[in-house]
Structures are given as C-alpha cells and as structure tokens.
C-alpha cells in the first residue's frame, strides 16, 4: 500500500482523472444493480399475473436506459483511469531517459545495459499497471462488491446473503494460494527458459567449433534435454494454472446451491418471492469478479511497488561528477595537469600519479605509451567522466576544470573515441550529430578532412547510407573516419583523438594529420596513439608508463634522448618501410 | 536494429497457421481427449442452469417437494458440478500440455536446422537474431496456443452450446436473439479492423522506443561529450508521445467497441428476453425457470466474445513470430552436402588441392585455380596478407563452404565423398580465437565425448603442455570457466584449444595461428606443443609469424587468391621474392 503514498505526487497531479474515473465506476456499479432487480420484478409480475403492457414497457425502457448509460460510464472510466496510467508511463519513461542522459560513466560501469533497459520497460509497465488496473481492481472490488452485497442484504435477505457468501472466501483463499504456487513455479520455468536461451546463444557463438568437431548431433541432444526441462517446469505451472477455473466454478456452484436450497425454503415460507430468488442468484454471479479482483490487486501492487522502488533508486542515484559550477562563461586558455594521484573508483590498479604538464592553447600534444599506461585515463579526466580528488589537479585557463558548467566545458571539446561508436541513422546525421542543422557543404568538408568523403560517395546510398543496417557494411576504418568527421565539423577549440587512427593505414593517417594541421591553426589538438607516427609532428609528446610520465619533449628531443619513444619510433618506422616495399613488390607481381 | 515486421497478409497467415497446426498431428490422442473433455465440460456448464430451471418450474413454483426426486436433483447438480470441474481441469491442462509439446518440437526442429546451416548463413545473419528466433519467437507461439486457441475453442463451444439450449427452451426467442448476431459481428469486425492497425502501431512504437533507449545507453558517452542530451531526450519524448497517443487510441477503441459495447448489448438482450416473455405471458403461461435459464444462457453467450476479440491481437503477433521461425527452417543456405561413400576413409592423410576455385558471393573469386599437395606427415604453411585467401583454403578443407570448381582429395578420395563423421574424426582444426564453452576445463577439452576417460583428457592436456597452467587453477580440471574464458590469457585459451583437438587424435591437423599478442612464457609452450602436435600428422598451417614455420616442408605464399611463391624456407629466401621481404620485415621487428 505504501506504493500509493509514494505515487501520491502522481495521483495529486491526476486527481481530476481519478475522481471522474472513480465516480464513473460508482455509477456503473449502481447501474449494474438494476437489471437483476428488473428480472425479479418481471418474473414476480408474471407469476402473480399482474403484469401490464404499460408496466412491461416501463421496465424495458428502464433497461435500455441502463444499457446506454452503463455504456457511457464505462467508456469514460476507461479513458480516465487507463489514460492516467498511460500518462504515468509516459512521464516515468521520459524522466528515466533524462536521468540516464545526466549520469556519468561511473554509473554505466556499475550497471548493465540489460538492467537499465528493464527499468524502462518491465518496471515502468508494472508501475503503470498499478496505477491503471490496480486502481480499477480495488475500486471494482470495493464499489461493485460492496454495492452488490449491500443490495442483496437490504432488498432480499441478510440471512440468505450471509449463507450464500460462506463458500466465497474459500475461493479467495485458494486462488491466492495458487497464485503463490504459480509464482514460484513460474520463476523456475523462467530460469529453465533462460538456460535454454543461454544454451542457444552459446551454440550459435561456438558454431564453428561444433562444426569442426562434428558435434552437431550431440549439441542437438543437449538442446533436446534442456528443452525437456523447460516443458517439465512449464507443465508444473500448468498443473496449478488449470486449477483456477474449476475452483472458481465449484465454489460458485456451492454458493448457488446454498442460495437456491435455502432460498427455496424462504420462497415456500413466503419470506421472499421467486423473482427475488432469481434476482438474488444473479447478484451472486456478480460477486465473483470483485472477489477475484481483490487477489489480483494485491499481486499488482506487490509487483508495482517493487518496480517503483527500483525506478526510484535510479532516480535518487547521485551523479559521481558534480554538476554545481562557479563560472558562467566558456573556458579558455591552457590546460594544465598538476595531478598528484588519482585512482578510478572501485579500481586500485589503474591509477595515475605525478602527471604534471601543460597543454598550451593552439598547440598539438601527443600522448603515447603502452596499453594501460594511463593515456586514456588522462582523456577521461579531461572530459570529466570522473573528477579528481583535488579540484586544482586539472585546470583549464585560470580555473579548475570543474568550476565550469559541464556543457560549456564540453562545447570546447571535439572528441573522437577509441571505439568509434556510431548511431544507427544515416551517415549524414552521424556526421552532423552535434548540430543536425548543418548544411551539405559543411558535412562534405568535414568528411573530406577526415578522408572519408570518397568512401561515402562510393556507397549506393551515399551520405544517406544507414549505419548498421543489414547488408550495408561500413568498415571499422570508415567508421573511425566518420567519427573523426563528427568531431571536426564542430571546429572545436580542443580536438581530442583518443587512439582514433588505429584502423586507418599509414598513408591515410598522414593525410588526415596534414589536413588537421592546415585546418586547425591556432586550435589545440590532443592525440593519443599507439603509432608514434601519429604524434611525431606534435609540439609536445608525453610518454606515459604505469600511470606516470616517463618522457616528454618534442620529437627531436625524444629521439635524441634515446628512450622508449626512440626505440618504438624506430621499430615502427622500419616496419612501415618494409611493409611499403612489400606492397610495391606485390603490386609488381600482379603486373 | 533488426527490421521488425508486424503484419502478415491474410494468405500468409493461413499458410503459417496451417503449418503450425501440422505440429499438433503427432499429439492426435491428446488433442482428441482434450476435445472430449472440452465437450463434456461445456455440457456440464449448460446443464447447471437447466437443472435450476427444472427445480424452479417443476417443484418450487407448484410448491411440491417429493423427497426422492429432489434428492436426485441435488445429486445431479453436485455430479454436474464435479464432472464440470474435473473435465475443465483436464481440458485446460491438456491444451497447455499440447502447446508446450508442440513448441518444444518446433524449437528442436529450428535448433536442428542450425546444425545443418552453412557458415554462409552465419556470416550474414547476426547471432542474436538467430537466438531470438529459437527462443523468443517460439515463446510468443506458446502464448498463442494457451491464450488464444484454447480460449477460442472454449468460446466457440460455449456460444454454440448456449445457443442450442436457447433453442431447446424457446425456438422463437432463440431466433429473435439471432438479431444480435449481425450486430455483434459488425461491431467486432470494425473493432478488429482498427485494433489490428493501432495495436501494431503501438507495438512498433514501443519497439522504437526501446531501440532508441538501448542505443542511447550504449552511446551515452558520445551524446554527453557532444552536448546532445537535450536533443536526443526530445527525440525520445516525441516517440514516447506518439506511443502514448496510440495507446490512448487503443483505449478509446476498446471503450467504444469492446467490453462496454458488449455489456451494453447483453443488457439490451435481457430487455429483449423480458419483453418477449412479458408479451408471451399475456396469452400463455411463462415460467420463472425458463426466464432464469434463458438469461443465464444469454450471458454465457456474450461473455467469451470480448475476450476472444481482444486476444486476436496476440494471435496475429504469434503468427508473425511463427513465420519468422519457419523462415529460419526454410533457409536454403545449407552447409555443403556430402555424397558419402563408406569406403572412402582417411588413412594416411595425403592431401591434394586440384585446381580449386572458390567465391563467397558467387562474383569475386577469392581462390583461383589453387593446386598443391601435402604428403602424409608433411607440414604445409600458408602465408600472405589478410584477404590473400589462406583462411579460405582452410574453410574449404573444413567443408564450411562449397567450392565451385576443382576438387580436394584426401588419400585419393574426393572430400565430398568422405563420410562427414570420418572427416570430423580425422581432421582437427585449431581456431585462431577458440570458443570456450560454459562448463569446466575438463568439459571444454572433452566436449561431447562421453566415452573419453578423464585420463585421456589429462593426457591431451599434458601432450600440449596445457597442464602447467591448468594445475595452477583452483580445482584444476574441475575449474569452472567464466565469461567464455575471458579470465584466461589468449595463449592459455590457445593451449586449451590444442588439447581439445589432440583429445580426438586427428590424422590431419589444421592450424590457424593466433595473431593476438601472447606473453612470452606461454608462447614458448605453444611453440613446443605445436612442434609435438605436428609430428606424424599432415598439417596445414596459417602462419602469421614466419619464425614458426621455417621447418615446414612446403611454404605457399598467397596473394589475391593465387599461389605466387612455393617452396621451402631456404629456397624461398634464396629466391628473394615476397617471402624473403616478409621474413626480413618480421626479423627487423624483433
């Protein structure tokens, strides 16, 4: 029940819909009381032979009026109550989306996409059901159930009512007991199904191994065994599920029996008429749904409450990165790292220590080092995916990074991630992601700078090619260059290439870098890379190892130093040289 | 995102339904019993009001209660109730049993099909969608069997039986009641027309909504860095709004034409019954019991209608799901067919490629007229750039794909004639990135080989020097593999794959060397075990590191689907061609 209190804000907001809806439900309940009475009257008049044409006409008109009014009332309570519940779903979905888009990567590291999706789908569905069907069931059981019960007792006989009601609680008790069994069995069936799902998944991922060893038959036998389990678990559920209808039928049968048995005696002793007995049994039939609804109500509320709590838990999660800011304007100037120590939350290994250097405005800075040396960690801190312990650790211009409003800060950066994530929309929209209003010329220009224009033109649908659609394959290298264009089109103050040239060949890399130098005069570039050639032209090269700087300087200084950069550069240069002679040779062979 | 289709044409629906119904044929017996139970329970259902009618008219109204007759009536009432309850239970359970059994068969058939599909299929169709065909789509069909077919059957029986009883009670009124039929049919037809449309729209929008959400969660980092939260949030809200609108349309439609409409008609029907009997009572006698029973039957008549018409949406969805499952089962991208000849056995491991030409797509040849021979026990190394065709040679030899021209001979027999089982037993392939299955180390080496002893598993691991790292694991061979073996280094995974292959002791060994970086300690073990594995076995090896194949009997250098150089390490170095350059390149690197 607490869930209704928690959802109070919503009921307050939708009080009109719910009030009108509940009033309609009350009216429907009252209307529904009439036909059984009319049936009784007509029967009595017929048996007593007091029915007149006029009277019959009145009865029929009354029924027609009841039919039409009930129709109208029913229509409106549906619109009111179900409409409100759909609005709740809409609000929650929208809020959840908003919340997700505010959360920093730390949030996404802790939670799996599947769970986050489940909150937006199953949980919202359950809460929505509580606000719709939940309200309906409780209102229906209390209003209809109560009205019918009172009417039976008042207009016919309290004693008969009491007697006929005796079996009904058994129905509630039994069905809710079945419900519990069903839940338990259903969970087991779900688990068996998900095992089968995993099995299928694995069989398909490992299809090559299976085919290699020729184990298709055994794999199929395994699947068969697991599908047997699914059937068995589901049949256990069916055994319980099939009990509902017969139980309800039997209990109602018993109730009818009592009503007619004692009712007949009352008819004989002239306490009630035959018409009243028929009215009574008709009412009895109307008690079934309200009683069953009561059981559903508790079930719905239980699920809705758990779901609501899960959604609320997400909504209450605080962002790891602070959103308070001190400075209104755009950041400007040099970026200064003066980092003593930093560890990622929940991770002791990937730390940074003593990273101190300055990225002067308008220069290009290269960051190199082995995988896991801390290159990307620096970028992540710069993008404020995480905050440093000490605000002064990273400054942009005169102020700490976190003093700026986060969107103002981000506006300065054009970022190209390692994993070249593209959205499943056209290439055009992907490039113009930062501003869908960009014109064709700007999009082409950015694509030319990142050396992907010709590739895109080569696709059948050109810039309208949808990424990720079946049958269209955009290669990794092309995706990478599209995501470079996506950043370049912003003409950002600071361009960050986070190992973003890994999937392009040496020649293309060279051209892209040359384009950058031309087009980005006076702007800052930060490039992390595995290939030294990607940073050799940089004004400053930082070599990271184990979370700290081991070498820094420009290309010449580092080559003169003869350290890690020197060795790696030479090894890679030799390799590139040999590879190009090899390519020449292959070409020659072909001719 | 995969393209979801939400509607089928009427003819397609019919075909799919018929095919689905064929799956019930093996369960004829259960189906028959279920039907009988359904009939009995329906009869029991209509008998109750009739018994009450008899009681009211024969005994209550005249006020006579002969004890034994009343006793019989009570017994009949109780018996009808009990029989009704039992047969209802049986009938519900049997239909559900049938549904699960049918779906199981469907699942098994679909899964078996997976085993027969060729790699061509898996190259094109994403794994996730295949899984969803076999599990989720079939699950939707279960819903249909339980939620729709059983309800529809029950509804039909209930409507028909109620109608029969109305005829028994009063033919004229029953005929009069027939006027409601066209009204109901029209109302429900209009409902169906719009509802199918709204329902599939709402469903499509929900699926869009979820797709958008899933993509946003995945690309959240990019969205944030590019400051596009507001724009995407707005886009999301637009779909959200549309979804709400369609839901409301559904609510309105349900409200106008479904339950409220049906219940209005049923009240009008009561008016009709009372009016009829009222008028009738002016000229002849009308009994209370008949009115009572007639009203009861009329209600039974209306009750199932609205439920059934609502469930029809589920039914249509299930048919779409079923059509997707059947499309998988009908896919003709099968694995290459074998014309098996039991006499063709692999004895020595003599391999010959004779003018083999192959294309993945039927247009560009990735292998052009390839010929070479590997004598028993020899090692043939394949080198070349990505796309040169070396993997294709292995893919053809493993029969993952069918070649278009030429032939591959093993011990003089065409590879197409050697029994599949024989081929799989005698040829061992080690994949570049071996797939590690859910289970233990032991089960990953053994795979599906129940007759293999633990000693054999251990021996295989020791043979490839995998025992070293296995012995360090908690539980050793019983160690449970998590997350597809991601806790192991790629070198360790490679050793496991070696052991897996050695456990079947093949005559011919196919190696696809891993390109991934392997730590030097494991690397050494890998080299040692490779040497050991190759001994006495004809080996085809794709080599990325030329140092590992210097002692190969033959090295084939491939370029664009052709063999451009062929010879031993020494002869190729002397030749001074591509191989020589490649060798220099790799040595320069070290």
What's the CATH H-level homologous superfamily of the largest domain in chain A?
P-loop containing nucleotide triphosphate hydrolases
Order of adjacent strands in the largest pleated sheet of chain A? 6-7-8-3-9-10
At the third CATH level, what is the topology name of the largest domain in chain A? Rossmann fold
Mean pLDDT of chain B, nearest integer? 82
Quick one: CATH superfamily of the largest domain in chain B?
Answer: ABC transporter type 1, transmembrane domain
* Backbone structural class of chain A: alpha/beta
- How much helicity do the residues of chain A have? 55-70%
Q: What kind of sheet is the major sheet of chain A?
A: 6 strands, mixed
Q: Largest sheet of chain B, if any?
A: 6 strands, mixed
**CATH fold description of the largest domain in chain B:** ABC transporter transmembrane region fold
Shape of chain A: elongated
Main location (chain A): membrane
Subcellular location (chain A): Cell membrane
Keywords (chain A): ATP-binding, Cell membrane, Membrane, Nucleotide-binding, Transmembrane, Transmembrane helix, Transport
Function (chain A): May be involved in multidrug export. Transmembrane domains (TMD) form a pore in the cell membrane and the ATP-binding domain (NBD) is responsible for energy generation.
């Amino acid at each position: 029940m607490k869930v209704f209190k928690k959802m109070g804000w919503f009921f307050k907001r939708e009080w009109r819909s719910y009030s009108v809806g509940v009033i309609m439900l009350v009216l429907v309940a009252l209307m529904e009381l009439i036909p059984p009475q009319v049936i009784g009257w007509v029967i009595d008049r017929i048996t007593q032979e007091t029915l007149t044409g006029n009277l019959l006409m009145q009865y029929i008109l009354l029924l027609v009026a009841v039919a039409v009014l009930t129709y109208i009332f029913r229509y409106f309570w549906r619109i009111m109550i179900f409409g409100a519940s759909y609005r709740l779903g809409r609000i929650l979905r929208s809020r959840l989306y908003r919340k997700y888009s505010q959360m920093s990567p730390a949030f996404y590291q802790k939670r799996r996409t599947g769970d986050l999706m489940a909150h937006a789908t199953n949980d919202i569905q359950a809460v929505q059901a509580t606000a719709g069907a939940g309200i309906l069931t409780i209102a229906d059981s209390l209003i209809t159930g109560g009205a019918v019960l009172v009417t039976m007792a008042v207009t016919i006989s309290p004693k008969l009512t009491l007697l006929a009601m005796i079996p009904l609680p058994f129905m509630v008790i039994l069905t809710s007991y079945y419900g519990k069994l069903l839940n338990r069995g259903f969970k087991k069936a779900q688990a068996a199904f998900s095992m089968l799902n995993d099995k299928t998944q694995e069989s398909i991922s490992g299809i090559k191994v299976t085919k290699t060893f020729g184990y298709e038959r055994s794999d199929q036998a395994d699947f068969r065994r697991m599908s047997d389990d699914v059937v068995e678990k589901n049949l256990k559920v069916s055994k319980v599920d099939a009990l509902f209808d017969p139980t309800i039928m039997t209990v109602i049968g018993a109730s009818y029996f009592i009503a007619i048995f004692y009712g007949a005696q009352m008819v004989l002793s002239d306490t009630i008429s035959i018409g009243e007995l028929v009215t009574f049994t008709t009412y009895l039939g109307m008690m079934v749904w309200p009683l069953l609804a009561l059981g559903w109500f508790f079930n719905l509320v239980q699920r809705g409450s758990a779901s609501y709590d899960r959604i609320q838990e997400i909504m209450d999660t605080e962002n790891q990165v602070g959103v308070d800011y001190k400075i209104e304007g755009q950041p400007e100037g040099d970026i200064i790292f003066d980092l003593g120590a930093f560890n990622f939350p929940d991770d002791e290994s990937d730390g940074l220590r003593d990273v101190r250097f300055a990225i002067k405005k308008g220069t290009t800075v290269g960051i190199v080092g082995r995988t896991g040396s801390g290159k990307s960690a620096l970028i992540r801190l710069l993008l404020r995916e995480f905050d440093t312990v000490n605000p002064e650790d990273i400054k942009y211009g005169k102020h700490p990074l976190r003093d700026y409003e986060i969107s103002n800060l981000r506006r300065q950066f054009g970022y190209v991630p390692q994993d070249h994530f593209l959205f499943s929309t056209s290439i055009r929209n992907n490039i113009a992601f930062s501003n869908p209003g960009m014109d064709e010329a700007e999009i082409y220009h950015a694509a030319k700078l990142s050396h992907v224009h010709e590739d895109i033109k080569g696709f059948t649908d050109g810039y309208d090619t949808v990424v990720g659609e079946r049958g269209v394959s955009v290669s990794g290298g092309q995706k990478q260059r599209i995501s470079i264009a996506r950043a370049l089109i912003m003409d950002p103050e600071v361009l960050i290439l986070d190992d973003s040239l890994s999937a392009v060949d040496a020649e293309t890399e060279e051209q892209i870098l040359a384009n950058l130098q031309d087009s980005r005069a006076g702007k800052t570039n930060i490039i992390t890379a595995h290939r030294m050639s990607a940073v050799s032209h940089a004004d400053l090269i930082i070599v990271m190892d184990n979370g700290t700087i081991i070498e820094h300087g420009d290309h010449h200084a580092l080559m003169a130093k003869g350290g890690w950069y020197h060795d790696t550069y030479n090894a890679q240069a030799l390799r590139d040289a040999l590879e190009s002679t090899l390519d020449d040779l292959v070409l020659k062979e072909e001719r | 995102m995969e393209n979801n289709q939400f509607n089928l044409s009427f003819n397609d629906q019919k075909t799919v339904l018929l095919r689905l119904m064929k799956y019930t044929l093996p369960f004829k017996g259960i189906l028959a019993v279920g039907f009988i139970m359904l009939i009995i329970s329906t009869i029991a259902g209509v008998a109750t009001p009739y018994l009450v009618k008899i009681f009211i008219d024969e005994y209550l109204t005249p006020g006579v209660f002969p004890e034994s007759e009343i006793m019989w009536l009570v017994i009949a009432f109780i018996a009808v109730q009990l029989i009704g309850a039992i047969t209802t239970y049986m009938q519900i359970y049997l239909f559900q049993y049938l549904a699960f059994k049918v779906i199981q068969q469907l699942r098994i058939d679909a899964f078996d099909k997976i085993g027969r599909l060729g790699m061509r299929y898996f190259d094109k169709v994403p794994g996730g969608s295949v899984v969803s065909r076999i599990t989720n789509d079939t699950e939707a069909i279960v819903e249909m069997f339980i939620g729709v077919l059983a309800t529809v059957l029950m509804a039909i029986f209930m409507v028909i039986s109620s109608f029969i009883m109305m005829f028994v009670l009063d033919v004229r009124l029953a005929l009069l009641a027939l006027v409601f039929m066209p009204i109901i049919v029209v109302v429900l037809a209009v409902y169906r027309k719009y509802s199918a449309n709204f329902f599939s729209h709402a469903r499509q929008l929900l699926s869009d909504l979820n797709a958008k959400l899933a993509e946003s969660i995945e690309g959240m980092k990019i969205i944030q860095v590019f400051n596009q939260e507001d724009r995407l949030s707005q886009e999301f809200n637009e779909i959200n709004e549309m979804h709400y609108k369609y839901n409301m349309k559904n609510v309105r439609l349900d409200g106008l034409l479904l339950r409220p409409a049906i219940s209005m008609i049923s009240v009008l029907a009561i008016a009709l019954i009372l009016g009829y009997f009222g008028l009738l009572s002016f000229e002849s006698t009308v009994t209370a019991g008949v009115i009572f029973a007639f009203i009861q039957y009329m209600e039974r008549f209306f009750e199932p209608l609205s439920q059934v018409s609502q469930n029809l949406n589920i039914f249509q969805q299930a048919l779409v799901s079923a059509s997707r499952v059947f499309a998988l089962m009908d896919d003709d991208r099968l694995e290459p067919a074998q014309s098996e000849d039991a006499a063709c056995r692999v004895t020595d491991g003599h391999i010959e490629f004779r003018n083999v030409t192959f294309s993945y797509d039927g247009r560009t040849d990735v292998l052009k007229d390839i010929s070479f021979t590997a004598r028993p026990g020899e090692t043939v190394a394949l080198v070349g750039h990505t796309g040169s065709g070396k993997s294709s040679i292995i893919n053809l030899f493993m029969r993952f794909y069918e070649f278009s021209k030429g032939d591959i001979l093993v011990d003089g027999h065409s590879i197409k004639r050697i029994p599949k089982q024989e081929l799989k037993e005698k040829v061992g392939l080690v994949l570049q990135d071996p797939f590690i299955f859910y289970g233990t180390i032991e089960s990953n080496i053994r795979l599906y080989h129940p007759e293999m002893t633990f000693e054999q598993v251990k021996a295989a691991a020791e043979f490839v020097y995998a025992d070293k790292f296995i012995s360090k694991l908690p539980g050793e061979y019983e160690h449970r593999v998590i997350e597809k073996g991601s806790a192991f280094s790629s070198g360790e995974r490679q050793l496991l794959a070696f052991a897996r292959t050695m456990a079947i002791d093949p005559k011919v060994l196919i190696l696809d060397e891993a390109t991934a970086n392997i730590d030097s300690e494991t690397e050494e073990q890998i080299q040692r075990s490779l040497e050991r594995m190759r001994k006495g076995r004809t080996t085809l090896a794709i080599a990325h590191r030329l140092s590992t194949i210097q002692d190969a009997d033959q090295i084939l250098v491939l370029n664009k689907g052709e063999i451009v150089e062929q010879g031993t390490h020494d002869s190729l170095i002397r030749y001074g061609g591509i191989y020589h350059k490649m060798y220099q390149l790799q040595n320069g690197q070290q």
